Structure formats: C-alpha cells, structure tokens
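Quick question about two entries, pasted in order.
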Amino acid sequence: MLNSARSIVRRLASETRGAEIAEAAAVLPLMFMMILGIFWFGQAFSMYGTITRAAQDGARAGAAPYCTTCVHAARTPAANAFSAVQAALVIAKLDPNKARYPVPPLVFNSCGGPVACDGASTKVCVQSPVQLSTTVGGATGVCGISVAFQYPFQFKLPFTSLNDQQIWLSASARVRMENQ
C-alpha cells in the first residue's frame, strides 16, 4: 500500500499536462495589467504634452503687443493668453472648463508691476510682468509673461489603487515680452 501511494505521488509530480494552463492563468493577468498601465501612463504623458503646448501658446499670445487671432481689437495680454490657451485646448479636444488655477500658485519676482494672477480668467493664471532673469550690475533683468494652469486626468486601471484616481497635471510657460 505504501509503495502504491509513493508511485501515485511520483506520477503526479512528474505529470506536466496542465502546467501550461496554470502558468498562463498566473501570468496573463499580470501582463494585462502592465499593458493597461503602459497605455494609461502614455495617455497621461500625451495630455501633459498637450497642455504644456497650450500654456506655451498662451504665453506667446500674451507676450506679443498685438494679437492676430483675437476677436476683439482692444485685448489685454492676459485676455490674449487665456484666449490662446482655450483655443489650443479646444483644438486638442480637451474641455477648457476643466482647467483650474495651479495649486500652489507660482510666485515670481516683479518687474515693476503686479505679479498676482490676472483676474481675466478663473481657470488660467496669467502673471505679467514677471522677471525671467536676474539683474546684473543694477540693471533690470528680462521681463516676460507667465501662463500656468492645471488639468485633470483620470486613470482607469482596474484592481489597483489608481482605478478612477484623478490627478492634476500642471502646465506652465514663461516667455519674454516682445516690446523689449
């Protein structure tokens, strides 16, 4: 009886017919989660590039003393910047209403003017004039405009702590004023 039990155990230990199924059942969910993670992090990176480009477009539009794409002739640099950010977000098929002020707000040295966010928008922080470079020998540094905002991104990664987690991607850009 003991020999027959040993032979059964030996035969079961050497049997490999179901091993591939068991290994696949263990590995496939992990591979699927990795592929989903790569996809969603790629989406987040793409959105980060899009909103950074929108901030750069806004800073360029605010830095120019004129605006060729603006609807109204007498626009302020902050209104030009906000309008350009909105246009860039709409073109990228992102909702401009989801943007918000950066938290915490960016702090820059002044170039002789206010540095607080301009009140033209409740979504995009436009600061002008801000000091972009340090002063050398008592001379005033280069002044410019800063555009910053945040945009939400929602991860969809099931069975993880990131599932339905909303993160805020930050975008900011600074450009030298063109009238200098």
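Here is the second entry:
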Amino acid sequence: MYELSIEEFTRYVVRQIESLGNITLNNPDTKESFPIGVVNNPMQSIKLTENNIPVYTRFSISIEWWTNSKYESMKLFQDTNKKLRDSNFIQIGGSIDLYDEVTKKHRYGGRYEVNYNGLTNTFERVK
C-alpha cells in the first residue's frame, strides 16, 4: 500500500504537463516568461482507509494557462485536457476564463479530479 501525498500528486501533475510550457505553482507577475501554466489549489479527500492508511483518495487540482491571447490559452488548456485524460483525470465544473489587468494576460483553465488507489498505486476515473 502506498499513501500519495499532496506534494507528490502536484509534482505528478506538473510532470504530465511541463512539456506544454513553463509551469509555476503561484500566480505569475509581469517578470515571468509567458505563456505559463499555473498549477494550484491541490486538495485531497480520503475515501477509504485500512489500519489508518489511505487506500482510496480523491484528488483535485486547478490549472490555468496565462497567455497573450485567449485562443492560445484555450489551446494549451485543451492540450492539458488530453494529457491528463491519459491518467484518468476529468475536468469538473466550468472553465476559468479571466483577463488579468496586472500582467495584461488572458487566463483560461479549470479544475480536475481523479481517484488514487493506494493498493495498486494507480489513478482511477471518478465515477
């Protein structure tokens, strides 16, 4: 049995999408190199334990792409969807679609969920 931490989960997500561009864990400032993906708000909810060890855990995380154009943000977000679907992640809720006045960049993204099975060390679809 393996207990996946929030840190390990976040690192896994970053590794899955880092080929798409720069990634950060905080909202960027004007000095950043754009486009940039922002991975934040990881959460976990333990669904099942055995001997006080999580056996089944639901994780969620939000990802946004900050770019010069909304179209570019949408494309990078769609590419993110494709990469994370390979690991059984699903997008939940509506999309994040904002314009940041400080950086003058478009922000587009959303929230993802996946279940983690500690017995098999695998990500499983949320049903």
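Reply: The CA atoms of residues 3 and 42 lie 16 Å apart. DSSP finds two helices and six strands in the chain. Hope that helps.
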